[in-house]
Amino acid sequence: MGTTRLESVPEPKYWQLKSVLTQALDSEFSVGEVLPNERDLAARFGVARATLRQALEQLELEGRLQRRRGVGTTVAPPRMGVAVGSERDAWPSAADDAWQLSGCTVATAPGAVADLLQTDREESLHVVRRSRMTHGQPVAAELLYVPDASVPDLPVIGTAAEAARARSVLRELQRLDLEGQSRTVELGSAGAEDAKELDRLPGAPVLVVTTRYHADGLTAAVSVATYRADTCRLAFGASGGVEIHHGPERRAS
Amino acid sequence: MGTTRLESVPEPKYWQLKSVLTQALDSEFSVGEVLPNERDLAARFGVARATLRQALEQLELEGRLQRRRGVGTTVAPPRMGVAVGSERDAWPSAADDAWQLSGCTVATAPGAVADLLQTDREESLHVVRRSRMTHGQPVAAELLYVPDASVPDLPVIGTAAEAARARSVLRELQRLDLEGQSRTVELGSAGAEDAKELDRLPGAPVLVVTTRYHADGLTAAVSVATYRADTCRLAFGASGGVEIHHGPERRAS
Fold first, then answer.
1. What's the pTM value of the predicted model, to 2 decimals?
2. Closest residue in B to A180 (Cα–Cα)
3. Which residues of B touch A102 (CB under 8 A)?
4. What CATH class has B13-75?
5. How many angstroms separate the CA atoms of B132 and B100, rounded?
6. Multiple choice CATH, A80-252, 2.40.128.20, 3.40.50.10860, 3.40.50.10320, 3.40.1410.10
7. What is the ipTM of this complex?
8. Block mean pLDDT (10 aa), chain B, length 253
9. Which of A91, A190, B136, B189 is the most exposed, having the fewest neighbouring CB atoms within 10 Å of its CB?
10. CA A4, CA A12: separation in Å to the nearest integer?
């Protein structure tokens, strides 16, 4: 970004520092390496600590640095591409699903979710909790909200273990005729429980993916999944089944 | 998020305050209203200024508050749903396109873009700059990178005005047979020029949407669009052309 016509825009000091730091990260540091402390870095680049901190915050937002308590600031590995909605026409918990069940409760939904489901805000719903790992790291935590009306034949499972309840809800959902999905992505902050599952502090920036599952002309279920914004790049599949070249070969130019 | 089993997770003080503030925003304040100053708010809720500030930052991340220099902290309007990739099988600048051309230069691409295009990092490309407005507000700034190899018959337009150059590049691109698009979404920070177009300060959080346009088995062009993370919710279309009910009617339950 911003490689063109930069001369026409005055850049703040920390932004210039960020560019210099980016080059240093590319050339001098390897992934996982701990950066020198703030005082030494500020001295090396001849800037105030406040300026340095702003630049480090930008690099953290962009996924180049990670700051962890007790470890310090380390060079982040490249973000992981995490496929979203590749099971385009499948209900949650399809065979090739990347998610693991972690619980199921009966609770009310946040107002925005109730509105999407067109249920009363006071109505209790089945809330299935799932989590997703990629390369051994937690990348997403999900709450799937399912109204009673979508699973009318759900067996009475009041005393069953949570995992069994979750499986029952998903099985009943799969009996509906899925007509499609729609999806939004926005910035959010991790709630306490999500943060715990994602191995982050509460309030950490997350990408919130809200998926509506459509059946019988209604929204039959809503999933709210929070993805770690520091480590994830959400990938939406190619349309038309195009095969994408990932190899090292160069195009003729 | 986090409405279930909250009792099992200890919540930090600012997180509790955030919940209280959210309720106050819902019940006592209207969109655009300026909040009391930090000292008064901290006193009202009986918390330290630092705690208050953390809670306000969370609410800003979640799009509930806006902080603007010279204005103070105001209650944000709901985020705008901005359709991404609704022109699924169209080249940039299709007839119903939401984008406006703002320039065209010849420049090198960032390393990551060059890698997607499988061009040399030193190769100069056509860089078309576009911007997108929704409800009179700037929501996105885009750079579209087009290698010479994708537009071999581009007329010589060295001295033409930028807008004319941009139109020529897009017209040539549309002569290729588009096979599909693939897309990633990740968190980033606004560069100086993007920030200016988006009416934000440099470093503001943005959602970066990278789109690869596939033709002839290659990536023929790459678009890097930065969307304002504070005001935008990116909407990805329903698959299968489902008609979605938006009306106020309630489902039977």
1. 0.85
2. B239
3. none
4. mainly alpha
5. 6
6. 3.40.1410.10
7. 0.84
8. 45 84 89 93 93 89 85 90 75 79 90 92 93 90 95 76 88 91 92 88 90 92 95 75 38 38
9. B136
10. 17
